[in-house]
Amino acid sequence: MVKSVTLRVLALLLALALAGCGSQLDPDTVAGTTLAGSDAVDQGDGTFVDGTDGSVDGGADGADGIDDGSADDLGGDDGSGPSTGDTDTDGDGDTDSPPAVSGPKASCDGFKNGPGITDTTITVGNSSDISGPVPGLFEAAQDATKAFVAYFNATGDICGRKLVLKTYDSRTDAGADQQAYAAACDEVFAMIGSNSAFDSGGAAAAESCGLPDVRAATLTADRTNCSTCFGAQSVNSHEVTNAVPDYGLAHFKDASQHAAFLYLNAGASSENAQIQAKAYEMRGMHFDYIAGIDVAEFNYAPFVQQLKDRDIKWVSFTGSYQADVRLLQAMQQQDYRPDVYMTDPTIYVSDFVESGGSAAEGVTVYTNFVPFEEAASSKEMSLYLSWLQQVKPGAEPTFFGTFAWSAARLFTEQAFKLGGKLTRESLVAALRGVADWTANGLHAPQQVGSKSTGDCFRFLTLEDGDWKPSFGTKYSCPGITKA
């Protein structure tokens, strides 16, 4: 039961931080929910990608005797720090793929080797939650980063240098994240595509050595405030997109005036829910009922009864997809269905659809990236899906993987433009100027440099087990409300 509760807490925190509502993880919750312990650092497999065939082979010996990156070697018994072994990924890849970087090539004159850079390679790192209380929590982010590095090395280089990817396992633990980034300061040029639930741990380490950290997203205030850290998905804790309330006011006006906001109750989630509801009301919605559900609560019937008694027509919910399923099943059992059930893109996974069954029909999610069902309309999404399967056949694309791919592309584009002027300092300066980043249309514009919440979202509704566009496929970009 402890593991189940922990999973729901983590999923809640991630939903709050990543769903575009501007909420972030609470340090007290971080301290109180991790089960990994302070010795939770471990190595990833260490991926070297030099662009010949796209395969992933075992790597060289790691610092703690890890020699092949296999599952049996992910023990991390002594917590002495991250260890890595470089894994070769040589390959042609998809011969139809366009170059990973294009446009005018910057001069390479004056290029100087430095931390993580040799005459032939640039070593980058990725630290994501692979093991810990919820195994594989952010493995998709690391897989997507591997996929992009394979793609990049098959189609291009930066001043004659290929990329080497060194992987770390932050193990869903702030201490592990700190140790990974302390090691990365000396081992890599920059970090790309990382995603960790408790990412506050490595913030000071990254900043202290000037390590560029181009993440899938930042999940804690400490990481957002890190001067060398940036998220491909931009989030500010008190900026809430207007897209959701405007969707309600435009298409479900009556329901938007009789709304409820339910959330899993952990850490700062109560405050965050109040902020989100306040912002929605400032935009014109009205909430008759706001309530938190304890993470250990399995009986959702009383909450559904409250919704029925208050004649609630719009339900917003933030939590794990398992909690969404539990609430939806309780609604179905009590023969209650609101006009709108709105939730965030963290439930946009096959497990939600399969476990929710008929109870999940009609659920709407707000999302800020090209739906996987529409990959044919997006060259960049098609590249992500294609290269993901080359690096890890059978892997499922995810929200987190999408933004990790975006982060890896952002790094290579900025590095390519800098050419011979590439240093850690010049890269960080360039990242501070990035605005309206879309990764070639992979997702809605993100304000990477200013770290403001991106305001553009669109909507999907589950119909007959498939996600379908709700009121069009274009993003709605009505600005943000500060609450």
Automatic annotation (TrEMBL):
Tell me the ranges covered by the Leucine-binding protein domain, including all copies.
Answer: 121-445
Query: What's the short name of a Pfam family annotated to this entry?
Result: Peripla_BP_6
Q: Where is this region: Disordered?
A: 36-113
**What does the UniProt keyword field contain?**
Signal
Q: Where is the signal peptide?
A: none
- Which spans does this entry mark as compositional bias, Acidic residues? 64-76
Q: Which SUPFAM superfamilies match?
A: Periplasmic binding protein-like I
Q: Bias regions of kind Low complexity — which residues?
A: 41-55
Keyword Signal found: yes
List, alphabetically, the PANTHER family matched.
Answer: BLR6548 PROTEIN
Name-wise, this protein is Unannotated protein
